[in-house]
């Protein structure tokens, strides 16, 4: 299953950028993933398969993931009973 990424997510990749930063802003999502270095502003376009191999963690999500939404719904249903 493909990684659930959205525009404006901030991610960490396995290796830092040569400028020393390790945080990237996602600006394009599709067959290719566009990311921008948060320190120097360099923009890189990676095939999705390469991006998913290099991906390490989300720093900040632009919007909640499906799992977060489902967990919130199930916890609110339990509170209403």
Number of domains: 1
What is the straight-line distance between the termini? 34 Å
Q: Give, in order, the helices and strands.
A: EEEEHEH
Please state how the strands of the largest beta sheet are arranged side by side.
4-3-2-1-5
Tally the helices: what do you get? 2
Q: Strand fraction band?
A: 25-35%
How many runs of DSSP E, i.e. beta strands? 5
Helix/strand/pairing class, anyone? Answer: alpha+beta
* Helicity range: 25-40%
- Report the radius of gyration as a whole number of Å: 15 Å
Low-confidence stretches: none
Shape label: elongated
Mean pLDDT: 89
Give your account of this protein's structure.
It is a single chain. The N and C termini lie far apart (34 Å). It is elongated, with a radius of gyration of 15 Å. It has a five-stranded antiparallel beta sheet with strand order 4-3-2-1-5. It has helices at 48-54, 66-80; strands spanning 10-13, 23-29, 32-37, 43-47, 55-60. The protein has one domain. The chain is 27% helix and 35% strand. The longest helix has 15 residues, at 66-80. The relative contact order is 0.22. The protein has 81 residues and is of the alpha+beta class.
What topology does this entry show?
Layout: E1 10-13, E2 23-29, E3 32-37, E4 43-47, H1 48-54, E5 55-60, H2 66-80
Antiparallel strand pairs: 1-2, 1-5, 2-3, 3-4
